[in-house]
């Protein structure tokens, strides 16, 4: 059974690798024996984190919305390693408003900025498309590989806006249309790519995580936790086992699927 989950001699690329969950993805892949390619916008930070993972890992500055940036990354990867076996499409952006006092007004659908919506589409959808096209094509040509697209529970269900209310019942923020729309697109892109590349030996699956506790207000943590069957938000490390399962031979007969790990959020 240990061999089923082993990633020894495998090379794995993680996009958006310097985020909270991205770092945990990298750590899990390295612990399973993979050579990890840490990619993010900040090349120096990516290199530093790759060194922290141990020997034979690689850090690259990559813009997933740039085809040339991804081509350069592929060349650097193949210059160092024999091949490419795993792609974790983790890079994404979520809404952040510089002025918290304006968050409620700007996040409301009626006022939500078109530029913000388009930016999310560009990174969260086009970025996954391009990364899969450039890096995944190499896997298809070599006849094997595992692509893991990171989506979200909000790719399957509409946002419950009540969890963004404080203890007084005041709405502090709205989850915008951008994140659910883009994550829903990723789930169906997974199905497309699994069907398109199935005959090549490349498997494509989605991992849909729930919310991670990361310094949110007590009101939000309480509201969110009450909606899960396990009664809590996720820890950043709660998705490591699922990721290794999808990356390894343990899921050898699994493709086109959406693995939901959300503490029961979408079960009822």
UniProtKB/TrEMBL annotation:
<protein>
    <submittedName>
        <fullName>SDR family oxidoreductase</fullName>
    </submittedName>
</protein>
<keyword id="KW-0560">Oxidoreductase</keyword>
<dbReference type="GO" id="GO:0016616">
    <property type="term" value="F:oxidoreductase activity, acting on the CH-OH group of donors, NAD or NADP as acceptor"/>
</dbReference>
<dbReference type="InterPro" id="IPR036291">
    <property type="entry name" value="NAD(P)-bd_dom_sf"/>
</dbReference>
<comment type="similarity">
    <text>Belongs to the short-chain dehydrogenases/reductases (SDR) family.</text>
</comment>
<dbReference type="InterPro" id="IPR020904">
    <property type="entry name" value="Sc_DH/Rdtase_CS"/>
</dbReference>
<dbReference type="Pfam" id="PF13561">
    <property type="entry name" value="adh_short_C2"/>
</dbReference>
<dbReference type="InterPro" id="IPR002347">
    <property type="entry name" value="SDR_fam"/>
</dbReference>
